[in-house]
Recover the amino acids of this structure.
């Protein structure tokens, strides 16, 4: 039976959610990747059933021609590999045309981080006379103190915070749960914020959500981006900053302080240690910088 594109996509998305346990954001990303290919197939008068390796390569070349960054090309190719793996598993096709295609070469991307001094400046810069400032201050402390993804932060529940034990439970990618320690500093800011939260008319369904907007609903991802970037502007920090910057800073500062890489992997919720190892490279850059700036053999060249 030949399925329509709509029915096929419905089955594929169900496979991603139920069998692979991927998060909604990841599923949406994979869906968009496949739609890009289907659009290309339509414009080139091809069909998905007889698509060949050379057709996929032409599609990837087309992405490059319109200026899509190599990192984005690699991510799209990863989505297509997932889709064609599904088609093979379900016997919709016999040969996977994407399997042996290599992605574009991309260099090691070292994420931007904030120094401890910069984070302290951000925390100290809130005007506490403003109604949302205590909430936003608590958000910064939780993001930096626990290394959460922005999606994990906006869905964090009060019932997931264990104050006495000083840890939280986090539901990460693929609905996988992990335990993350939380500092007394972050807990203190949360306690202060809860007093403001009690005054809100909480929307039904969000009663257990920790961070809410003034209308009593959970915050959006965009709102978290805005809060952080706005506060960095106030502090005069001119870096490309996002909520993920605080997660990167959390991991890097742990490593610089001597934390075990496996422990950092567990706290970040990385499936592979390879993902966490990028912070080893960041740490090497930090060490190199320290040597170049402070070692007497190098300082003489700066005078």
């Amino acid at each position: 039976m030949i399925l329509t594109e709509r029915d096929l996509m419905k089955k594929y998305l169900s496979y991603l959610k139920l069998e692979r346990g991927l998060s909604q954001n990841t599923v949406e990303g994979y869906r968009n990747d496949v739609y890009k290919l289907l659009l290309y197939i339509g414009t080139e008068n091809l069909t998905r059933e007889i698509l060949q390796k050379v057709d996929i390569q032409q599609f990837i070349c087309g992405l490059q021609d319109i200026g899509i960054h190599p990192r984005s090309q690699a991510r799209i190719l990863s989505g297509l590999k997932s889709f064609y793996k599904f088609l093979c598993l379900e016997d919709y096709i016999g040969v996977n045309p994407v399997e042996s295609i290599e992605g574009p070469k991309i260099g090691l991307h070292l994420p931007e981080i904030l120094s401890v001094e910069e984070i302290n400046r951000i925390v100290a810069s809130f005007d506490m006379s403003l109604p949302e400032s205590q909430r936003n201050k608590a958000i910064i402390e939780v993001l930096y103190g626990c290394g959460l993804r922005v999606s994990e932060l906006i869905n964090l529940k009060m019932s997931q915070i264990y104050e006495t034990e000083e840890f939280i439970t986090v539901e990460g990618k693929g609905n996988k749960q992990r335990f993350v320690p939380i500092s007394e500093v972050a807990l203190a800011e949360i306690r202060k914020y809860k007093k403001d939260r009690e005054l809100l008319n909480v929307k039904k369904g969000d009663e257990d959500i920790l961070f809410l907007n003034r209308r009593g609903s959970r915050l959006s991802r965009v709102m978290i981006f805005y809060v952080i970037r706005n506060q960095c502007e106030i502090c005069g920090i001119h870096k490309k900053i996002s909520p993920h910057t605080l997660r990167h800073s959390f991991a890097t500062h742990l490593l610089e302080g001597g934390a075990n890489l496996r422990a950092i992997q567990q706290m970040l919720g990385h499936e592979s240690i390879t993902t966490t190892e990028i912070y080893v490279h960041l740490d090497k850059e930090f060490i190199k910088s320290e040597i170049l700036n402070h070692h007497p053999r190098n300082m003489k060249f700066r005078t």
About this structure: The chain is about 55% helix and 5% strand. The chain has two domains: 5-89, 116-293. The CA atoms of residues 149 and 244 lie 6 Å apart.
